[in-house]
Specification:
Length: 80
């Protein structure tokens, strides 16, 4: 089963929206969501603080500006 890594932070409406889209897509695709709060790891904070929400699906990486239902679904089709 595919594991989707999802970089986020608390109290982030864009992160909440991205998580809602991922949850909705779990009805059609088999994958797990691994949320990673960037404030729990200094390396994640440095790497992703300006990019969150940030999703990694195998080789496909999407930042907050790229994430929408279409890009997520396409990445899942290619990687699950």
């Amino acid at each position: 089963m595919t594991n989707v890594i999802y970089y986020m932070k608390e109290n982030c409406s864009l992160c909440d929206d991205a998580h809602a889209l991922l949850t909705m897509l779990q009805h059609d695709y088999k994958f797990t969501i691994e949320p990673r709060d960037i404030y729990t790891n200094d390396a994640w904070l440095e790497e992703y603080q300006l990019l969150i929400p940030y999703v990694i699906i195998n080789e496909t990486e999407l930042d907050g500006e790229q994430i929408n239902i279409d890009t997520l679904e396409q990445a899942l089709k290619e990687n699950t």
